[in-house]
Amino acid sequence: MAAMEGEGGAPVLQEWRVAEGRVVVLRLNRPERRNALNQEMVEALTQTFRRLKADASVRAVVLTGQGKAFCAGIDLTSPVNAVQQASDEAEDISHNPVRAMEAFDRPIIGAINGSCVTGGFELALACDFLVGSPNASFRDTHAAVGVVPCWGLSQKLSRIIGPGRARAASLSAMRIDAKTAERWGILVKVTLHEDLLDECVAMATASADLNPDIVEQYTRTLRDGFGLPLSQGLALERERALRQYGGLGQAGIGNRAGSFHSKL
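^ Enoyl-CoA hydratase, sequence as received from the core. Prediction below:
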């Protein structure tokens, strides 16, 4: 599939494969605009994740940015269709990159190379977990710009860092540096800038080496349970466990476990 090109002819989203093709690296590629999201990049992200979902050979994705920023948010000189992005209509969802990432049922690792601002912050939070360089930072400027979020920031951030910190971050547009982001749990770790992509690819490859069916099911359960009260999340886990165990039978469970342990 040909990459979608920007004004200068370069693809706004770069894509390549590693780990025998099982891991895809996607890099936002508008460094002159700090990888700000215009309609071309939004569409490229959406259609790429939809295509990768249909490709069973892809076990994990690493998402990063070119240059000094991960993503500066929506490009206000070339804004996307905000009404479409906020809509729950099926046609509009088909053009929503965060919905496409949520529908991709394998791990997405964010390699946060620089600043994540507003829509870029939301794009990062659509990943399953984030690893950052010391240059990583996060800032919610919705209230400064004069718009409200529609890609999940108002709900996801408080569930990750707690309501008080989330309100402080969003209602004061405070900048969260890499060390603070790691301490608060936005980043799972901070690594050297020059090692960032290699570390994330190694983590994605480790995931790709696991049982692919279980990784997909586990990814869905982790995501689906994220917004549920604990009692409902536990019920969801039991329901899906029973569904799988009932299909395998006791002998099948033992065979799977033995097969995995033999690889350790």
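The two ends are 37 Å apart (CA to CA).
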